[in-house]
Amino acid sequence: MEDGYIDLGNLQKQFLCCKPINKLQWNTANTGTIEYNTMSLELQEKILNKTVNYDLVKKYPMKPSYQRAFLKFLINELEKSNQEVHDDLYNAYCLLLQVSDHQENATQYRHFVYNDTEAITLQESMSFVSLGTTGLCTWQAALGLAEWCMTNRKILTGKKILELGCGVGLTGLTILRNCEPKEYIFSDTHPAVLNMLCKNIIINYPSYDEHVAIIGSPEDDVKLKFDCNGVNVEAIRLPWEEINDSWRRSSSALSPDIILAADVLYDDSCFDSLATALCHLLRNDGTYAIIAATVRNVATISKFLNLLGSYDLAFHEAQLAEKKFFAHVDDTPIRIVKILKVDA
Ligand SMILES: C[S@@+](CC[C@H](N)C(=O)[O-])C[C@H]1O[C@@H](n2cnc3c(N)ncnc32)[C@H](O)[C@@H]1O
Predict the structure, then answer these.
(1) 229 with 207: CB under 8 angstroms?
(2) Closest residue CA from atom 27 of ligand 1
């Protein structure tokens, strides 16, 4: 939706997923220049209602310091341009200044809008590494993979999908909402990640029915399991190190058609266990894995890909999806590879 030179829908999308304030694209043409001196009080109010005062933000609050920084930026720009500032902007800013330390550090959410009206809401930690894990926030490759899945919906329809190292759930929840899989198994190794993932599934899964869900105890590997309109949804503890021949024999037949993973190629000490896991999970029958990696270090990713041959696995590059559904928080390049089993 456009309003004058501000693309309100796009601004909202970026705000809701906490795109850094200095990277926000405000205007339709993305020329980088906004004429704040012509920003009417009415438009200011609309911006406030699409961002800080938006219902979803009231229900699932975003980081207060981010909301403050957004309002401060807007108020500063208006004041610098000698433009009258709407009272509600000052009021909202003052309310955010009164946030206690407890509220500042309380549970925070981001909202990933994928079309004009729908969003995935995720509880997250605001630090990249928290409680000794990288899994409590959404990584760039998860957005890249979610975008790929939206673009390749038909490939996923009717399929049994296993996600490895799923983190807080963006990719899986996007697929559940949009791609009609037959089964979706979220998996991760870290207890805090699995805990937050289960909360996020419950927040977002529209037909979740707590009466038919199985909630696992802390010792159980299955943390959450329920059927929704014929889709089997599970959240399980699945460390790659435990996926071996004996696990395969004892497990109740995890036989996915497609394996997905995002941002799991950053620590080379895990590469052997990840490759072993893929070797055990993939079959020579057309099953494959799609792995999305944020390219921070080209050599690290190459190291993993070069290892695959010794596990009877081969890879080829998958086509990146155009960034058209989600707002992307940063511009770090993403690489997506398809991995298959080859004859030994
Ligand atoms: C960088 S995070 C990415 C999370 C999510 N896929 C995303 O892109 O937002 C890596 C994830 O892999 C999980 N992980 C790391 N090592 C693992 C292992 N050996 N077995 C299973 N999961 C693992 C972590 O717990 C974490 O959730």
Answers:
(1) yes
(2) 135
